[in-house]
Amino acid sequence: MRFIFLIFLFFSITATAQIGKTFYTVITQKDTQVNSGLGGTMEPLRIVSVNKEDNSQVVRYSFDMRHKLFEDYQKKYISTDSLAHFQRKYLLDTANLHKWKKENELLVYIQKTKGKWKIIFDANYSGIFSDDPVYFRDTSFFADRKWFTQSLKVNFWNEKAFAKELAFNLIPDAALPKKYTDAVFNTWGGTRKITQGRLVVGLDSFLVKIYLSDHHLMYSKYSGNFSISNANENDFQLFSTPYPVYSSKDSLYIGNEILMLNSVSVMGDTIVFKKVGENETFKGVQPGAILKSVYGTNFSTGAFEDIGLKRTDSKYTLLHFWGSWCGPCIANLPKLKVFADINNQKVEIVGLPFEQQQDVAKTKKLIQQYQLNWKQIIQLRDHPFQKPDMVKQLAIAHFPTYMLIDNNGRILVRSSNLDDVTLIVN
């Protein structure tokens, strides 16, 4: 009986430890914006054959590097230890590689003639082009740096069979850098493998984009790179300055929580993050602290303003951090307007919209639409001179954020819920 009790105690302790951990699951879907090479491979395609008489060539693209890795191992170009590393990172199933080798390589026939490009994808991987659809594009189409995007289906194996739809981008162009000297023209191409979904932490959500940058088809914890938006943004561009690229070894700050990538499904449709700690410095200036002023560019006048928060009257000051890109912010604007109308003798509101320059017109429209008739001190995150100083100094990571301040400049409330402010004011 004592032995059984000890076993029960062990499993009870293990379960408690698991319960104490926090995991965030993100369900993703394919990013359908396929007219960009970002988030995938884009490179000169290898020449298979050239016919200079009719100005045509056949090029090749390999979907999955694992065949080449295993061949290198068999030729003793890489060690057993290196192979073990690749098996973990790329889910390299050496016993089943042959099951999808036929579909690993895509052949494309391209011919340039009389102002037209003739393109045939070997979409059924038969090795011939007579049984595949033929596409035509004007030369001007590619001259404008547009991608020709073809949806392709690839079957592969990892303990069971999978089928994957890939967006293959193609651009033949004589003006592009030439890698293969025997080519009659340059051809660049590659697949774009991105999925995206929402990470919800507290009241905020963050758009996550995870992608495969190398030649392989399956995701794993170690092969997917990802970027995350600011709180409540609806979209962002991969590889742009404000959005770092993370890997499995990186920790990231979401509000005051520190997260790490815990797992990724084979198809990239489920991502799990694990909370590994909290960073007190990211909680920002908290209630009880004295705030001297807020400053920035007045949205209406374009003039710089430094607004002191110590007042001679008994009014509160409510700082409202929001953005035109933020769904919850917009949803709360009618409620904030009602609050302002009811409490205009008690509270002076100062808006601090956190924006990109391209969103300023939308900001103006929202201010007019919801009659936000109070000062708006804009915080531009991509302006070379008008920096979002207040957002940074107060470590505003959640939008909207409301900060209620008394007439001595003391912070009374810092919250994403306007009801918390109403309780104090009333």
TrEMBL record:
> In its UniProt record, which GO terms are filed under biological process?
cytochrome complex assembly
Pfam families, per the entry: Thioredoxin_8
One GO term of the cellular component aspect? cell envelope
Enumerate the UniProt keywords alphabetically. Cytochrome c-type biogenesis, Disulfide bond, Redox-active center, Signal
Tell me yes or no: is Signal among this UniProt entry's keywords. Answer: yes
Please name the InterPro entries in this protein's record: Thioredoxin-like_fold, Thioredoxin-like_sf, Thioredoxin_domain, Thioredoxin_ResA/DsbE_sf
The organism that produces this protein has a lineage beginning with:
Bacteria, Pseudomonadati, Bacteroidota, Chitinophagia, Chitinophagales
Compartments where located: Cell envelope
PROSITE patterns tied to this protein: THIOREDOXIN_2
Q: This protein is called what?
A: TlpA family protein disulfide reductase
Residues annotated as domain Thioredoxin? 285-426
User: Transmembrane segments in this chain: where?
Assistant: none
Give the source's domain of life in one word. Bacteria
Native source species: Lacibacter luteus
Record Gene3D superfamilies: Glutaredoxin
**Does Signal show up as a keyword for this record?**
yes
Leader sequence residues: 1-17
